[in-house]
Amino acid sequence: MLATFDLQRLGEKKDLDELRQALKDSKEFFAKPIEEKILNKYVPSTNAGWLKIGSEKINQKSGNTEIKEALNIRKDRIDSMDSGLIDKFIQQCHRVCLELLVAYAACLQIESKDGDNYFSNRHRYNQPSGDVLRSLYYPACKQDISRAIRADGHSDFGSITLLFLEKSDPGGLEIVQSGTKDTFIPVNQQDGCIIVNTGDLIEYWTGSSTIHRVVIPRDPSRPRYSIAYFCHAEDSTNLEKVDSKILRQDINVIDRSSLSFEDYAATKLYGQPKTAAEHLEMRLKHIHSHEVANGGLDE
Ligand SMILES: O=C(O)CCC(=O)C(=O)O
Ligand SMILES: [Fe+2]
User: Fold this and answer.
1) So what's the ipTM on this one?
2) DSSP secondary structure, 122-185, as one string
3) Which terminus has fewer CB within 10 Å in the chain: N or C?
4) Mutate which of 71, 160, 161, 163 for ligand 1 pocket (most atoms within 8 A of beta carbon)
5) Domain boundaries of the chain, sorted by first residue
6) Rounded to two decimals, what is the model's pTM?
């Protein structure tokens, strides 16, 4: 599933102002010299900090290089990067995710004592979870480099993702078209909208998630900035299929097992995860496995 929500209509003006400020702050961070950014270097055990180009390979099988930098900030702030504004932004994102999760459970008519709160009861703000706010910067490319991509095809690791883009976004975000296995179509991006993706945890629970990627736009000289809030279930949450009246009737569920995306390969390599925390650990190990193999990932 993928949806877009218009903050201009749903939110308050200050929400939009805060979003623009967050995008501006993020731009300033990436413009800093490497020596400064490295002070907040990515730490694998916390999944927080700054990742330079090439640190991640979201699809280990593809020969593509991902031209992107990222800064991960955790909901629980064990990363100790300081900013009051970020804390507030994270809280707002989490609140939006909870509302979406309630709507999602209601649409699925889940048969459980939790009812429409089935998902939200497993995403309590103060419980340990892998939630991360991630700023992304895709630098301009001088020319169209072969085998380069901004973000390779993938599903996100959590339950749902909120994606925020700049007004001047150069485009490039694509999703797999509903009803197909690997036909990518461009996402219509609009200023002031939140793009919502469903991730791996929703896939475990319902059998479906959004595969997406970011390609280099027609004009590769235009950089791209985005902010993603990856909402995760509480660490101990089980990954069992939900009992849903709607899903029982759904004959359109696509078998993704033949897709070459790394979650399946990773499952074979690391064993079947049983909880949200185990799933995240598996995915993170896998996207950094090329660095470990090269001896490049240090704590
Ligand atoms: O930058 C974007 O638009 C998407 C980023 C993304 O898909 C991700 O970081 O998981
Ligand atoms: Fe993503």
Assistant:
1) 0.98
2) G--TTS-B--EEEEEEE---SS--TTEESEEEE--SSSEEEEEE-TT----EEEEPTT-SS-EE
3) C
4) 163
5) 4-293
6) 0.91
